[in-house]
Design a protein that fits this description.
Number of strands: 14
Largest sheet: 6 strands, mixed
Order of helices and strands: EEEEHEEHEEHEHHEEEHEEH
Oligomer: single chain
CATH topology of the largest domain: Nucleotidyltransferase, domain 5
Shape: globular
CATH superfamily of the largest domain: ATPase, nucleotide binding domain
CATH class of the largest domain: Alpha Beta
Helix content: 25-40%
Number of domains: 3
CATH architecture of the largest domain: 2-Layer Sandwich
Radius of gyration: 20 Å
Structural class: alpha/beta
């Protein structure tokens, strides 16, 4: 005997494709059982302007193909659509509104008036520590809310790719002084984690030879960060490169992270859908 629950819909918005993974959920005598019902990829033209319209239109068409069943949706945004910065700690800030205003100021200092329409989120840490802040175009977020409302799907969360990957592998990074490196379609995100807390983060564009050049990229990033760290440990999230030979370096110890996948998802696991299937 089992009781059917709302489906879970995981949507990954990449620079040139929309990924949908539909997960069925049932409540049985043994507890809740989750299984992958379907996974699909919907490419779109990334170089044709406006990119946002192309992505939203593709997403709407993809959602229209889903069974007419209630579902909770989670959206994961590629780092291509997200900006990050570290917000210094200030004991002069007394509430969340002041913290967000200060974070907004930090983004304005970095990006100028371009940052004005962005919506911000802070990754709260312990008092006295800098906070990791992410920013997404407000028009993109509103478009997503509208699309899911029209599809009669409940949009539960929108999360940056960096946080999805980091949270999935957090157990491997706890109490570590290490660099967390995430690759995604010509984009490399590098974060310095010390004792499980973010100390720096930066994204940069890279070419097809990025993996061979990774030690060189890390040398430059360690120099530019100006942080007091002696860590040479690198944890790399790049599931589609899992079979690649990692570069050898006398300076850096590079390890490939394996996404943590639920046992019930393993029969349907595909490295191309690692971001949607992790956790």
């Amino acid at each position: 005997m089992s009781l059917s629950l709302r489906d879970e819909l995981r949507v990954v918005l990449c620079r040139d494709q929309v990924q949908l993974v539909r997960i069925g959920r049932e409540l049985t005598l043994q507890g809740r059982q989750d299984r992958v019902l379907d996974k699909k990829n919907y490419p779109y033209e990334a170089d044709a302007a406006p990119l946002l319209d192309n992505m939203v239109r593709t997403l709407e068409l993809a959602l229209a193909e889903l069974p007419k069943k209630p579902a909770n949706a989670q959206v994961i945004l590629s780092n291509y659509f997200v900006r990050y910065t570290m917000v210094p700690w200030s004991d002069k800030l007394s509430n969340e509104a002041e913290e967000l205003a200060y974070a907004k100021h930090c983004f304005n200092q970095l990006y100028g008036t371009t940052a004005q329409p962005w919506e911000l989120r802070l990754n709260q840490d312990f008092a006295g520590a800098p906070q990791l802040a992410s920013a997404v175009d407000g028009q993109l977020l509103q478009s997503l809310r509208d699309v899911f409302a029209r599809a009669k799907l409940k949009l539960k969360s929108v999360q940056p790719q960096l946080m999805t990957a980091y949270n999935n592998c957090q157990a491997q990074l706890q109490n570590q002084n290490a660099w967390f490196v995430l690759f995604d379609q010509g984009n490399l995100c590098l974060g310095l984690v010390q004792q499980g807390h973010w100390n720096s983060v930066r994204t940069l564009k890279v070419g097809s030879d990025w993996l061979d050049r990774l030690p060189e990229i890390l040398d430059r990033e360690a120099y530019l960060s100006e942080l007091d760290t002696s860590s040479n440990q690198i944890f790399l999230w790049a599931p589609e490169q899992s079979a690649a030979v990692l570069p050898q370096s006398t300076q850096w110890k590079i390890s490939m992270l394996a996404p943590v996948i639920r046992p019930s998802f393993l029969p349907e696991y595909d490295e191309r859908f690692a971001m949607a299937l992790c956790g």
